[in-house]
Amino acid sequence: MTIRKWIEQIEGEASVQFEFEKNHVSFATIAFPHTRGMEAILQSKPAMDALVITPRVCGICGHSHLFSAVRAIESVYANCGAPVEISQKAESIRELTLTLELIQNHLKWLYLVIYPELSHMLQEKIADSCRLKGAYAASLATKILAIFAGQWPHSSYMIPGGVTCDPTHVDIIRAEGLLDELIRWFEKELIGITLDEYVCYSSKKTFLTVTGDMKKIENMLKRTKMHEQGFSYDRYLAMGEHEFSKPSKLVNRRMAKVHSKFVTLEEAYSIDEKTYAKNALYHDDYFETGPLARTMIEGVPFIKQMYKNYRDSTYTRVMARSYEAALLLEHSKKLLQSIKLNEPSYIQPLKKIATLSGEGIGIVEAPRGSLIHSVILKNGIIDQYKLITPTQWNLSCGSPEIPGPAQKAMIGSDSIETATFTFRSFDVCSVCTTH
Amino acid sequence: MKSRPKLLWLQGVTCNGNTHSFLNYPHLSYILETFEFLYHPILPATYTLEKIASCTQSCDILIFEGAYDPRMMRAGSRMETLVQHYGSTANTIIAVGSCASFGGMFKQSDPEYITGVGFDREIAKGPFAKSNKLINLSGCPIHPEWLGYTLRMIADNKVILIDEMHRPKELYAYLAHHGCTRNEYFEWKVDAEHFGTKEGCLFYKQGCRGPMTHASCNKILWNDVSSKTRIGSPCFGCTEPDFPRTNMFETKTNMSIPQDVPLGISKRSYLTLTGIAKSFRIPRLEKRLIDDNT
Amino acid sequence: MKSESEKSVRTKKEDRKTSIMQTALKLFSSEGFYTTTMPAIAKKVGMSVGNFYNYFSSKDELAKEIMLYISSVLGEQLREINMSEKSVREKIDMIVKMYFRIAQERPELIEYFLRIFLSNREIFTKSCSGMVCVSDFVTELMLFFDDGVQSGVLKDQDFFSALGLFMGYLGGMVFLNGEEVLPQPLHDYESAIAENIYNALRKQ
């Protein structure tokens, strides 16, 4: 039996065609029916315009695109023998605003997608006010972000050589106040214990002390048997370099370095439906990227413990993303304290951008995983711009013989509903996937 | 209980930026209580997109996000059909964002077919061209307060005055320049030498469109805290029909003379004033605001 | 509301100032700027020295006002050219002709600019810094250049590079003419000069 389902309330829409046999999903084809041709839009534009255009790839992770774009342009500078100098202050501010974008994403996803979906599956009511908690918390995170970036979404404040902002202690104190408010909210609503206690968890046992919405969600995941399904390849990839994530891959418990030259794209598998997505592969293999990959690679004890019990199930995947929000809140606190205001925000690159001809690549860890921008400039004009988004890894559509990570995770589900939930556990974003 | 006005949020060619910007609105509960959302890409709603796509419902307010491509398919239905059906049942059509208003960023995806819902750049075109139901909330993205204002005005049965581009005057009569913290540098023509400082005006070199852009960004601050120009980024003029322009981080000049001058001011008057203002050296404006921080 | 008589008093004072400046310009031209004293100018215009100072409080003030006056005379001419429907190439012709015509008909205006304003900057630094006293003229030149680049005829370059090329050339020719070095009358050179300027400034 073939059942086609429109997956909505994601960023854009996806169409998943399930093959259902003997009460189980035997295969699923993922199609993304829309594209905006971002790469073509970027063609022939002055390099700096990429900093305005690429954030518009996505309304929820545009800041990650900005960061990738600026890293890509800076890498062209380096490849042209004129490396750009960046102050520690600018680095910290960039890292901080990226971190805040990840936090808003995870909290919105948890309250506006995961919690309602679980409630729906269990036929339990969820109040609108409960869903709106996610929007409230996210708006606090973006408020802090905007102190440095001017606005969210769609800021363009990162530029080759640093950032455009020039904050004072007034801004830092304001940001600290708001972050404190966000952490208090997180403690009160989501976990019922202190953030310090939560991020110091070393074994799953202690999760019992967690109360709040996180406890309810964890419980619902168990009741829907999400710890027994949704297994993918157990292969993890994180390519962006940050204080919170090292570029590595993890396969069979073995960590290895990664290099962008091994990243390739292939056409998505499709039966009869037009899809604009292209599959991303590393060394010709599918990899899972995103919070589960990052926390596994970083060896976060809490997630490792869950992995030990439930491997890379949908349960672990959802918990990893939720837990990463906590880790990133802690990280934001440290970053805010580390900003050295006496350093310059911006160091003018020695070469004029209009003189640059060459290639560059910019990789960051976006909310959903590794995001790659690669660019070829000719006299400062974009000759070619290529985007590889995190969802292209996770939501790759492979053949029945070699399915992509999300497809593999859905195969074996006992209902379309649980398979769909597993699909959502990857945090679907169609606008990024096809860009 | 009085039945609530039915609101439908439909998306065309979009990045979802307006959806996410609106999630920052501090009074979302009020909106959810006052309006019935037939469909919304993220917020709780009565129907699925599939149900909406069958064109069996009717709405009072149609919110359209993204550029309009009549050929686009949403959940199996052609966009042209969807827009025709819901547009005819709605009393008000709100184009949110510059793509929906004028074509914006994603008009470039397929310039021949893609437009806004009532304008193609500055020319009236599209399914709601010249419709007196149309309200444009341009901006890339919209500020949540702009949509919040519009919806509350509708809920309270108040008249929204609009300009010739169908934008509410109370939001767009201002320029992004109004309230900019760099205004004094603009007055005395002290330009920012480079990025990354709180001093200096971004109009002369860095491409700032503030004095030519209808927007209240420096009046109603972004995320309640800031704006592009306040953190040293130029205004890109994202509320105007010609957004996105090219070379957005550079001021277009002809022999060092800015091609575009503040809105409604003749170039002759502007250059005369500039020549005079530039000739005065004002040490206070040439110095950093806070020396010790440098 | 001001009465008719008040208005005419003001206009009269302006006219008087203009005629003083014209006289002063001629004296500066024939006697030299430094050697011409304020009482000498007063005498020439038939005015008591005391009354004369009601019009110009100092020689520096007079010098600055003269520069403003010249700039506005040239600016007015250039403005007319700018407002005409002619092509950029034709406008260059018109500017060259206009400049040489003024140099012939009222040589003291151009001489003052070249010999006094540009060579005695110390007099003007206080009240006339930058381009304040030539702003009428410079603004019109800016508008001419801006229009030329926007219409795709002139090459986009730094304003001062273009200004120097254009005005330096014209000033130099007027100077050579004044020194009686030129074998031909000034207007004989007009079309060649206009063509050179056009070739130097146009988009390649």
List keywords for this structure.
heterotrimer; A: 435 residues; alpha+beta; Cytochrome-c3 Hydrogenase, chain B; four-stranded mixed sheet; three-stranded antiparallel sheet; 15 helices; 44% helix; C: 204 residues; mainly alpha; Arc Repressor Mutant, subunit A; Tetracycline Repressor, domain 2; 2 domains; 10 helices
Describe the structure.
The complex is a heterotrimer of chains A (435), B (294) and C (204). Chain A has 435 residues and is an alpha+beta fold. Chain A is 44% helix and 19% strand. Chain A has a single domain (2-434), classed as Cytochrome-c3 Hydrogenase, chain B (Orthogonal Bundle), CATH 1.10.645. Chain A has helices spanning 38-42, 50-53, 62-79, 88-121, 128-149, 169-191, 195-199, 212-223, 291-298, 301-310, 314-338, 390-394, 405-410, 416-425, 430-434, and strands at residues 2-10, 12-21, 24-31, 158-159, 162-163, 235-238, 248-251, 254-256, 263-267, 278-282, 288-289, 358-366, 369-378, 381-388. In chain A, the strands form five sheets. Chain A has a four-stranded mixed beta sheet with strand order 8-7-6-11. A three-stranded antiparallel beta sheet of chain A has the order 1-2-3. Chain A has a three-stranded antiparallel beta sheet with strand order 12-13-14. The radius of gyration of chain A is 21 Å and the shape is globular. Chain B has 294 residues and is α/β, with parallel strands linked by helices. Chain B folds into two domains: 6-168, Rossmann fold, CATH 3.40.50.700; 174-286, Cytochrome-c3 hydrogenase, C-terminal domain (Cytochrome-c3 Hydrogenase, Chain A, domain 2, Irregular), CATH 4.10.480.10. Helix content of chain B is 24%, strand content 12%. Chain B has ten helices and eleven strands. Chain B has helices spanning 17-22, 28-34, 49-53, 79-89, 98-102, 144-155, 169-172, 183-187, 267-279, 283-286; strands spanning 6-11, 36-39, 61-65, 73-74, 77-78, 92-96, 119-120, 123-124, 134-137, 253-254, 257-258. In chain B, the strands form four sheets. A five-stranded parallel beta sheet of chain B has the order 2-1-3-6-9, sandwiched between helices. Chain B is elongated, with a radius of gyration of 21 Å. Chain B starts with 5 loop residues before the first strand and ends in an 8-residue tail after the last helix. Chain C has 204 residues and is mainly alpha-helical. Chain C has helices at residues 4-31, 38-45, 49-55, 59-83, 88-105, 107-117, 121-124, 135-150, 159-178, 190-201. In chain C, helix 1 (4-31) packs across helix 2 (38-45) and helix 5 packs across helix 6. Chain C is globular and about 60 Å long. Chain C starts with a helix and ends with a helix.
